[in-house]
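Action item from last week, closing it out:
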Amino acid sequence: MRYLLLSVLVVCMVGMMIPSAFAEGEIGLDCPVKISTSNYEMIFECNKKLDVNKAILDSMFEDIHWISGSFNDAKLSNIKQNGSVGTATMEIPVVVTSLKSDIKFTKSSSNYQIDFLTGKLAGSKMSISVSMTSGFDGTPNMGSDISLNFSIKKKMCISFILINKCSEPNDVMYALDKGLVLLEPKAKIFQRDHPELISTPSSSNSSEQEKIHEEIKKAPEVKKIAKEFDLQPKKEYFPVATLPKTISGNDKITIETKYSVYLFGDDVALLTTVPYVTNEPILLEFYNAQKKLVLTDSIYPDSNGFGQKVYGLGNELPSLLFDKFTVFATYGDSKSSTSFELANFGATIELDRTYYTPTDRVYFTIVAPNLNRNANIVDTIGNDDSSTITISTDRNYLTNYKLVESGKSTGVFAGEITLVDYDQPTRGIGPTGGKLSAYVGDELQVWINVGSEDYVTTADILRFWFENARVVDEFGASVPKVTVGQQVLIAADIVNMEEKNQSFAYVMTVENSDGVAVAVEWGSGALDSGQSMSPALPWTSQVSGSYTVSVAVWKSVDDPTPLARMLTLEINVMDIDRKYTSSPVTTSEVPAWVKNNAGWWAEGQIPDSAFLQGIQFLIKEGIMVIPPTETSGSSESQEVPGWIKNNAEWWAAGQIDDSTFVSGIQYLVKVGIIKVS
C-alpha cells in the first residue's frame, strides 16, 4: 500500500508544525509557521531531506504497520483503498488521550493530499510532494526531498488550545518529532536487509511485513538514535517569542450582548474581551434555535483586548421570527459563549362582532409587534414566509390574505372581507375586497401562523335573520314618544335561515341609565325553514329617564346560545303633567262591583257597554284622570283589544294590582280606542 505513505507523513508532519529554537547539533525539525487570519488556520511549510531512496519509502509503506510505527504506534483501521484514492481511520495515542480522525487521501504521481474529515483535526489539510535527490554522500537518486504544506484548523486539538484539551503540547511535539527522526534509520535497515522487497514489494504478505516491522523497530541502530533523541535537553516547541501579549486582569475570553431579548430588525452589538493580544482574530460562530450554524465571522481585538461588532437581525444575521441564538467566541485556547433571542409578543386578532349573518361585512385587526419588521416603512403581512393569514368558514377559505400596517412602526394590521351566500364564489387576496361564501350555522375563523405559532379567533354565522327592533303599540303602529305609565311593545323581525324547524326564545332586557336591569321579559316559539314572525313583549315604565332595551334570540330560555346578534334600542321616557297621568290607585278606591264587572266581561258574561259603565265611574270619581281635550262617548261600536280582557281577568283574579290595570285602560283612552265623557 504505497499510497499510505501520506498517512505517515501526516503523523510526522505534526512534529514540524511549531517553530523550534534548537541549539546547533540537536536532532529534529525546524519549520516556519504562518497565521491565516481569514480562515483561522496555522500553515506550516517544511522541506526535509532524507538520506533514503524514494523507492524504499514507497516499498515500506505498502504495509500499514510502518505507518503506525512511524509515530508512537499510531494505528490505522477501516482502510479502504481503490487505486489512488482511499479512506481510513487514524488514531494517534498521546499521554492523556488520543487523536482520532477519519481521513481521505489521494495521490497523483508523487503529490499527495490528506483531508481530515472528523474529530479534532476536522477541516485540516496536508499536501505533500516527494521527489528524488542525491544522498548525503552525493550519490545520485539515493535521497528524497519531501515538501510539506499543512493547513491545520486552530480550533483543533493540535494547536495552542492543545494545552487544555489533549496533553502538554511539548510532549506531543516531542513524540511526533522523534517518530520522524526514527523513520530514516528504519528505512536504511529496510534497504540493507530486504533489498528484494524494494523491486518486488507486492511479493510479501501482510504478516511478513509485520514481522519485518517488529524486527527493525528493535534493531540496535534504531534504539541508539532513540536514546540519543531522548537524552538531549528538553526541547521548547513554543518559543517565548511566539507567545501572545497578556492582558492584565483577564484569564479567558468573554463575550456579551447589551440585551438578552431583541426585536426582528434590531441591531445586536457583540462585545468581546480577550486574555491576550496577537495578530489573529476572534472566531465567532452563530447557532440558531435549531442548532444550525448560520453565520461565521471574526472580530479583531484592539490593543487593550476589546472587540465590538454589530449585526442586524434579519440582515447581516439570518434569523426567523422568535429565533434564539448562541454565539461562540474562540481565541487561541480560550472559548466563551453568550445567548440572546427575538422577543415573542405573539399576536392578537380582533373582530368587529362576535357573530355575523351570511351576508355581513367582516372587519378584523391583527396586533403583532414582531411583524413590524421595518420601522421606516409600512409593512405587509399574511402572504410571505414569515406569516400566513387564513380566513375560513366550515366549507371555504381564503389563505395568504395580505394585510397592511396602519402606519409606520405600529405593528397593527387591518383588513376586511364580505360574507356571501354559499353559492357565490370565494376569492380575494386582501387587504379588502375578499369574498368568502358562508352557510348559516358556520363558524368563521381568522387565524395567523407566525413561525411555528398559530393565533386564532372565531365568530358564529348565525341561524336567524334578526332586524328592525322598534317600539310599537298593540296594533303594530310606531310609538315615537313614550311617557310615564304608557304601555308599549318592543318588537323585532325574525326569519329562520336554517333548513330545518328551529325553536327559539325571544328575550327582552330593560336597563336604566345606571345599567341596572329594571325589567326582563321573554317568550318562546318555533319557526319552520324560511318562516318569519315579529314577536313583541310589553313594557311600561313608571319612572321617567333614559333606558336601554336589548332584545335577543336564544335557543331557549335555559340555553342562551345566540341564534342571531343582539339588537338594542335607546328609549327616553318623558314625564307628563298631573292631568295626563293617573293618580295612585288603592284597592279601597275601586268599588268591588267594578272589579266583578271586569271579571264577568273577561269571561264574556256581560257586554262591552256594561264594562264601560264601570270605566266611566272610575273617571267621574277621579280615580282615573284623562286629558280633558278628549271626549267621552259610547264605545259599544269600538273593538276592544283582546289583551284588555286578559288584563281584566287577571285584575279580577287579583293577579295584577289596581294601578297596573288602570294604566292599561288609561292607555286605551288616550289613544282613542275607548271614548268616555
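Closing note: The CA atoms of residues 599 and 652 lie 5 Å apart.
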